[in-house]
Amino acid sequence: QVQLVESGGGLVQPGGSLRLSCAASGSLSGINLMAWYRQAPGKQRELVAQITRVGFANYANSVKGRFTISRDNAKNTVYLQMNSLKLEDTAVYYCTDLYAWGQGTLVTVSS
Would you give the end-to-end CA distance of the chain in angstroms? Predict the structure, then answer.
């Protein structure tokens, strides 16, 4: 089972940008689907974006047009570029292949 480690979270003002990274301990080439989920305080974990091995992506309606998921199979890394951040994007963001989960990285959007 691959191990996943997220990074790149932090404090950002509304309208700002962050780029999250998810480094896998093993090869991503054999993993079809990689995804980012998030969990806000007091809320259930929700899907943010997912991407297939060949790069097909889909997004939650709440982030469509603002977030971009990508993967570099050669570097065993998945990314989440987050632009035009809103207060409601505040959450712990998790990377997963739907079997293994990272420990999460906190994104706080606040003025």
Answer: 39
Model confidence pLDDT, tens digit, residues 64-81: 999 999 999 999 999 999
Tokens at 24, concatenated: 């896998």
If you count them, how many residues does the chain have? 111
Cβ atoms 49, 80 nearer than 8 A: yes
- DSSP one-letter code for 39: E
How is residue 58 written in tokens? 């889909």
DSSP lists the bridge partners of residue 82 as 18, 67
| Cβ atoms within 10 Å of 10's Cβ, excluding its own | 12
- The whole-angstrom separation of Cα 70 and Cα 92 is 19
